[in-house]
Amino acid sequence: MIDSESDLVATGATSHEVSRVELVVVHGMGRQIAGQTLLEWAEPVLQRMDWLAKGNPTENGASAAAQKMAEESTLLASVERIHAAREPGIAEAGDDSQGEPTTIEFGAVVLGTECDEVTASIQFLDLEAHLRRVTVHITEARWSEAFLPLSRTQIFTWGLNFVFRAVWRLLRYLSTVFWVTSRGFWGIGRVVAVVAISALWIVVGILTLVAVVFLAVSGPLLLFPFVGTLLKPVVDVLVDFVGDVPAWTQRPTRAAAMRQVVADAVSSARTRAGDSDRVIVLAHSEGAAITANLLFGDAIDSPELRVDTFATLGSALSLLGAPSFTSHRLTPSELAGPGLSVKLNPVRAWAGMDAAIRPRWVDFFATWDVIPSGPTSTGPAARRTRWAASYTPSVRSAGAAVHPYAESSELGPEEHPVHNTASAFTDHQSYSANIVQVIDPLARIVLGLETLDASPTSESAAVRPLAAASAEQNRLHVRAVKELGLNRLLVLTLAALCFFVPTLADLFGLITRGPADIVTAALRWLLQVRAGESPLAGVFTFSWVPYFVVVAGATALLLWINAALWQKFERQLASCRYDRIAVPRLRVWGLLVRVPVSLALVLGLTVAGRGNVLLLVILLIGAAAVIGAPWFGRIPRIVDSRISDAG
């Protein structure tokens, strides 16, 4: 370590800046155990900070001036020399292998209590080649234990009313996603979008009907001991996951208790930081709605709750709104009638704050996350406008570099559209695993490793978007997530056709007859099933059992291979330094799954069509389009924040 001013002078550093950052993490909907949210965010953020600290300014995307300074000075070599001279026990050749050393120095770390905390310090060179030391103190605001949960009957009653609003929101948002992203491709994309939207409405309609019936009959059925015992595990999971949502939306007293937990955590962080150090609040899902309601509500002018950066991820602000004693939502005109002046729009409140105290608001939303359903703004039309702006192509001005941020006329925070897992079922819980588009910018915000040259005058002084270390890295990540989702859909489609297309089922059954017999024998041995001696013996007399097992097993294997290849690609992509994308071999990982599955679909459907030549040609064209689809289409851009309707 560099421990004295003389060491700093010896390195040639122009300054040694020491700062402290208070980071408060707020969990989303669902019950949380102590330390769960803290570790979910602290570990990847600290790991990324360590990775950034090991890179020089050039590798981390420094400006042209800082790059030249780093190249001409002996700063890096001097720092390494001081490290080697001060640290005892330096390993030599022939010693035992060790893990890569970390640049993080841990202070107080307390986990599993009511006062969990993580303190860590790191020393690094910033983008101007200045030596800096940052100490980050991470705490959590665990509001899920701050109130008495609602009863199961109350939750089910609320769910029956809420499900229709949530489904309508989901259908409207995903239909917009399909339609807007299908622009181009000579009109073919629009046809695919119409088919996808139609299928979406049918599937969601069926699932909604099932959910409504389940919610309607579950309450009365729980009164019967036998049925109640069977349904209790399912009901408990549902209550634990969404039970706090009706408590927030329809029980203002309990909502106030949730807010108070967040207020105490933010106030304590501000007290420790004082006026000179920074406070960053990171809030997910329902936690984002609670925190926004606190910071931009009645406590908007409270100095003890002042924060410097507010980061929301998968925000439920537009879905849940503000607490109310009734489920009826009043429009602004209805409120104006009786003369009510209630602050119900946190975005307008934030935009209207004095510039000296207004926090920087950074909002991350995943494309397939239906909880936020796009960006954060003042209303549905404004959110749609800001969302569409992220897909607006960049325009290069004469003699200037392309600015990475898109602009919108609607009020709203700095929007970061991200791609997590290409699944509406998992996107909402996957923000902390998105290194390239979520963790990297958060770590850069904590360290202050953001591009300072915001107005380049030449193409050589390009602006690096905060969403990723480089535009190329961001593009490859988006393509990879699209491939992950498309491959998953193709595998599931092939599995479904193996059951519902008789000719394809016969073909696959013929191919897998040997493996099916092996699987059947293995299952008989594992379950100790003997003819006439076990109630399970009759199951194996059905011809579909081994066939189902083989199809399900092959599907699971292909899905696992698809996910494993994607994860390997993402790890290597995230480890690439600025503008040094060193994963050429893995760029085609998606083809390893997509090409064989597409050809299998073409073969099976051609056989089902009795070798029709026209059908074969159409299927081959469709397969080629599907194989190349992830590599086309626009990459969403960051939308700059907007605090004034006039500009």
Give a concise summary:
This protein is α/β, with parallel strands linked by helices. It has 21 helices and eight strands. 50% of the residues lie in helices and 9% in strands.
When the domains are counted, the total is 3
Helix/strand-derived category reads alpha/beta
Give me the CATH architecture of the largest domain, please: 3-Layer(aba) Sandwich
> Helix tally?
21
Rounded to the nearest angstrom, the distance between the terminal CA atoms is 48 Å
What can be said about the biggest beta sheet? 8 strands, mixed
Low-confidence stretches are 1-15, 397-401, 452-468, 538-542
Mean pLDDT score, rounded?
77
Q: What is the CATH fold-level name of the largest domain?
A: Rossmann fold
* Helix-residue proportion: 40-55%
Considering the protein shown, what is the CATH homologous superfamily of the largest domain?
A: Alpha/Beta hydrolase fold, catalytic domain
Order of strands, widest sheet? 2-3-4-1-5-6-7-8
User: If you compute it from the alpha carbons, what radius of gyration comes out, rounded to the nearest whole angstrom?
Assistant: 28 Å
Instruction: Tell me how many strands there are.
Output: 8
Keywords:
647 residues; alpha/beta; Rossmann fold; 3 domains; eight-stranded mixed β-sheet; 21 helices; globular; disordered N terminus
